[in-house]
Design a protein that fits this description.
alpha/beta, 2-enoyl-CoA Hydratase, Chain A, domain 1, Lyase 2-enoyl-coa Hydratase, Chain  A, domain 2, 2 domains, 14% strand
Length: 303
Amino acid sequence: MSKYEQIKTEIVEDGLFIITLCRPEVMNAFTARMMHELCEAFDSADADDNVRAIIVTGDGDRAFCAGADLSGGGDTFNYEKRQDQAAKKTAVRDDGSIDWSDAGVRDSGGKLSLRIYESVKPVIAAVNGAAVGIGATMQLPMDIRIASENARFGFVFSRRGVVPEACSSWFLPRLVGISQALQWCYTGKVFNADEALRGGLISEITPKGKVLERAKEIAREMTKGTAPISVTLSRQMLWRMLGADHPMEAHKVDSKAIYGLGRMPDAKEGVTSFLEKREPEFSDSPARDIPDFYPWWDERKYK
């Protein structure tokens, strides 16, 4: 029996970890519980050296995720009045003012986006249908987004009287450019897969019902014949350098990574297998063998 209520997980051939958002009766609408279950699933995948890549999709062919569960009605985003968001109430002081530094102010989508950002495995979004609100923004820290021809996207926050969440004000402009990001957020319109492709939000469109299989193909292309530890470090290096203020910051990290990995068995195996014209057999583990300069963004380690 699954330990999850609102998602499903499975490891399939070639070490692909499939996460399925599983509330099809409400188009896989997002809840606080779903957020916690997704974070736990990413924890499990990162800790398992048998997992090479993560794919996130939705149950059914109608929706990836239709956004926040709106069953709370007009108070959906008023956390002080929602029973499932009791922890959010800690931000309100006795005099009724808000402690903006309190952890209760943090939005659930942002917690999920940050967890995905921290992933040590590549992450692919296989968008099988509607992806609106958090259904769109949760994809942004994923590495590759592909969509079925029936997919729809929408950064609809301005039409709900709120603002983009889930760290999307950081991710979206970096992925599609500031002008496109602003246009989608200002209008709050729902748009089709063709527009998402033209705008750079997704990398390709698949026939209906084929998006998960195509995601698996892409995942295998990324993981076949590649060193897991190299993929892990490459993911963190490229994402985190988006915020660097000078290429020297990249040079510092590149140098440490080349120096550190160059002393390890996988680097020797990568060269030897190439010279011997055979498939490599990598053995270094992302969970235990990453050199100790990682995580370099932790100021206690970064020098």
